[in-house]
Design goal:
By secondary structure, the protein is of the alpha+beta class. The chain has one domain: Nuclear Transport Factor 2, Chain: A. Helix content is about 20%, strand content about 50%. A six-stranded mixed β-sheet has the order 2-1-6-5-4-3. The chain is globular. The N terminus is likely disordered.
Length: about 130
């Protein structure tokens, strides 16, 4: 990794997914009705969602793996800073807690599909100016 790449978090994010996902990867969030196929489309989607999460705090819950599958459960708490996360019941400025189980199906050590089982909770609603209400 070059020095320039080391300081560009988006570049590191993209390279991480390019190296670990198959070109034909399928990403889905069934409760939101989302299914995306193809590495570049998945990367675009993940970057858009990540850009909506201000000051995210990740709490790992548990992880289990085998050569064919990884199941990763985590909680992410953040302020929604974007124009919307498709299918999520949140608005700009909300303090959100996302509980998610990510199921990675592997092929030759790379991700062929990633499924998110999600539960969204709004901890504090934003007021009309987009700021969190006290």
């Amino acid at each position: 990794m070059s020095d320039a790449t080391a300081y560009d978090p988006h570049r590191r994010f993209i390279e991480h997914y390019r190296s670990r996902y198959l070109p034909s990867v399928r990403w889905s969030a069934p409760r939101r009705g989302i299914e995306i196929v193809g590495l570049e489309a998945v990367i675009r989607h993940l970057l858009q969602e990540a850009a909506c999460m201000a000051a995210p705090e990740f709490t790992p819950v548990r992880c289990a793996s085998s050569p064919e599958r990884v199941i990763d459960e985590q909680v992410v708490r953040f302020v929604h800073a974007g124009d919307g996360i498709a299918g999520a019941p949140i608005t700009r400025g909300d303090l959100v807690e996302l509980e998610r189980v990510r199921i990675f199906e592997l092929q030759a050590g790379r991700v062929k599909s990633e499924t998110h089982i999600e539960t969204w909770s709004v901890l504090e609603r934003a007021n009309h100016t987009g700021r969190i209400q006290a």
